[in-house]
Amino acid sequence: MHSSRRHRTVRSRAGGHDVVATRAGTPGAPAYVLVHGIGVSGRYFGPLTDELAEVGDVLVPDLPGFGRSARPREVLSIAAHARVVAALVAEHGLVAPVVVGHSMGCQIVAELLAVHPGTAARGVLVGPVTNTRERTAVRQGMRLLQDGAHEPMRVNAMITADYVRCGPRRYAATLPHMLDYPLAERLGDATAPVVLVRGENDPIAPRYWLDELAAAAPTVGVAEVPDSGHVAMYTEPAVVADLCRGVTC
């Protein structure tokens, strides 16, 4: 459970967009930026935020068009979202943060590392998408339902509420950007080391897909979180926090 005393809301103008974020921890401590996936917001990072905030400075933005942030007329590409994250890092004075992505957020982190060198010290990609063997909306939808059947009811309810808030039009317009993104190619261009993380039971990010991604660059490592699905950072936050800190892997 996260503490409202330590979690505070911050508002920024970043990359031409009004962005609302959660800040937690101690300014000046090792920094972390947590980047959420398609259709949702940063709130499912709550348990991981608590873990990292014990000895860190954590920034959790709601990307433009999602969660509490303003809804621009246009739908942002992965590259545009990466520009927003880079601007947030600069705006908040974060030095060499570890940038953590989940699902589509992994693509944004990969873009950040490839195109904005020096912005981050390291990337951690949890449940990266999109598996090259299932790069269609139908297949991804099926895998999402398959995963949801085994996730905690609380996180399913949170994600569903965020999907409703996002709306079907924005979700559908964002989806092609996610499906078409060349993640392996971008990891090959990354300017910082990356750790790929999957829940042991995640049907959206199968092990063979992570192995394919790891082959794209010598600085990429792979880790599995036991007894977890796609939202491993929610169900096993302490394990994922150790990966973010570089304690394991």
CATH class: Alpha Beta
Instruction: Kindly report the name of the CATH homologous superfamily.
Output: Alpha/Beta hydrolase fold, catalytic domain
Strand order within the widest sheet? Answer: 1-2-4-3-5-6-7-8
Percentage of residues in DSSP E strands: 15-25%
CATH second-level architecture? 3-Layer(aba) Sandwich
Number of helices: 10
Assembly status: single chain
Instruction: Let me know the average pLDDT.
Output: 93
Report the end-to-end length measured between terminal Cα atoms. Answer: 26 Å
Q: Give the helices and strands as they follow along the chain.
A: EEEHEHEHEHHHHEHEHH
Instruction: Give the overall shape, derived from the CA principal axes.
Output: globular
Specify the biggest β-sheet.
Answer: 8 strands, mixed
In terms of structural class, how would the helical and strand content be classed? alpha/beta
Q: Quick gist of this model?
A:
The chain has 249 residues and is α/β, with parallel strands linked by helices.
Keyphrases for this structure?
alpha/beta; Rossmann fold; eight-stranded mixed β-sheet; disordered N terminus
